[in-house]
Structure formats: structure tokens, C-alpha cells
Amino acid sequence: MNIFRILGDVSHLLAIIILLMKILKSKSCAGISGKSQILFALVFTTRYLDLFTTFISVYNTVMKVIFLICAYVTVYMIYVKFRKTFDSENDSFRLEFLLVPVTGLSFLENHSFTPLEILWTFSIYLESVAILPQLFMISKTGEAETITTHYLFFLGLYRALYIANWVWRYYMENFYDQIAVVSGVVQTIFYCDFFYLYMTKVLKGKKLSLPMPV
To answer: What is the domain extent for residue 105?
Structure first.
């Protein structure tokens, strides 16, 4: 395992912890897209089914379990524990616009036509677009809380670090996974505008705001 993979996993875990702490501390889910969190829970569920069939390492198993637990705890807090604070009106992105093409693509482009492999491929494609409901929500409301922007920053950083991980593996291990790489690049592109605003506004103490859709 290389440093980019470890830093990527840490960044990913930190993003989730930041989100959970935000909800628990404020006792509110305001500004958080429940639909994005449902998609991430679906991503982890379909990707980590191999927990029951394959053992890679203690680290790998522990991280998978942590991500699964955190994903479902987040969904629980949004839709059950703090549901009265959830802004369902602005969390209006239609998930079928993502799930239908992602499902179709996972059947058409995969490494092997087996149930686990198709579900793994589905999770990779879905993760690349799972943040869109959250970004759409921020665009619709016109702004985001600072703590939410920190969550998004570390989530985007995780993807950028994984691109570095793939470059390292290509040169050091001669390993290349086109599906994972292309999907990761697509996901990182979605964060580019956000990264710019984060660096120029949030880190200078200003509130992040986005142009509202017409």
C-alpha cells in the first residue's frame, strides 16, 4: 500500500467524520443532501459485498466496516433522528437521472459479467456522480455552511489523492484499472469549481456562495 492510498482513505474518513460531527453538534441536517448520503450508502453496500467472500487485510476489512456503519448512521440521522431539520424541499435532485444510466453502464462496461463484479462496477460509476445532489442543493440555496464546505473539500481531496494512487500503482506495479481511473477523474472534475471557491473564499473566512439556478 502506498502513501497516496493511505492519505486518500484518511481524507475520506475525515470528510465523513466532519459531516457526522456537524450533525451531532448542531442537532441539525440543514444544508446536507440526504439523497447524496443515500447514494453513498448504496455505493459502499454494493462495493463491499466481498466482505463475506474475500479477505485482503485487517486494514481493508476495518475500513470497509467503518465506511458502511458511518454511511448508514448518517442516513439514519438525516431521515429519522433529525428529520425535522432536513431541508427536503431543496434536496430535489431526481436520483433516477443518475441511477438509470449508471445501472445500464455497469452492465455494458465491466471487467466480468458476474453479479459481484457488476455491483462493484456499479458502485464505482455511482460514486463518481453521488455528490451531484449535494452540489445541486448548494446551488439551489445559493450558499453552504463552512463546516459543509470542509466536508466537501476533504471528499474531493480523497478523490484527487486516489488519482495520485493510481499513477503510483501504474508506474510501480504496472497496474491500471480503466473503469476506476476514468470514474475517479470524472468525479474530481465535478469538484474543480468548488476547490477554487474553497481556496479563495472559505479559507479566507468568507462564506461560500454559488449562483442560484434561474
So the answer is: 3-86+93-206
